[in-house]
Amino acid sequence: MAEKSSLRRLKRLLPAFAAIDAAIEAATGFSRDNIRQERGKLVEMLCDIITDNDSVELAEGLCQLLDEAMVFALKRLRVVEATPTVLATTDAIKAVAGLRSHESGRVRGLACSIIGGWTTSINCDISTGRAILVKLSKMQQAHKALRVPGRRH
């Protein structure tokens, strides 16, 4: 039973790691290959333990290490500039949203915080965009009012 639980947990984490790494790399331009390799070692160890029917406690310990790796990734994601373009061109939103129901309270909390921050940021961008559109519209109306009748522009 614990083996299946570990696999289910791993199945949800791996795509999230990939999406979060992609978003961080897109925002910063720095490779996360070394981090991927270290996480890969943990995943291999966990798969070996599950395959060999080894200790449930050891499997849980490795899952906790992977949870900590996710906490680290989420903290990094929170501090990088995740622009609307980065969010639109990666699967980060879906991945982070999926982590809001993760087993680890720290992972859940960070995921909720990040989604909330992105929502606030995007709403602010929308408000700014609307204000700019209003100003442009007023400028266009003022320009039309200044046109001399009978003269082509």
UniProtKB/TrEMBL annotation:
Signal peptide: none annotated. The keyword Nucleus applies. The keyword Nucleus applies. Keywords: Nucleus. GO terms for cellular component: nucleus. InterPro entries: TFIIS/LEDGF_dom_sf (IPR035441), TFIIS_N (IPR017923). It comes from the Eukaryota. It is found in: Nucleus. It comes from Zea mays (Maize). Transmembrane segments: none annotated. Residues 44-125 form the TFIIS N-terminal domain. This is TFIIS N-terminal domain-containing protein.
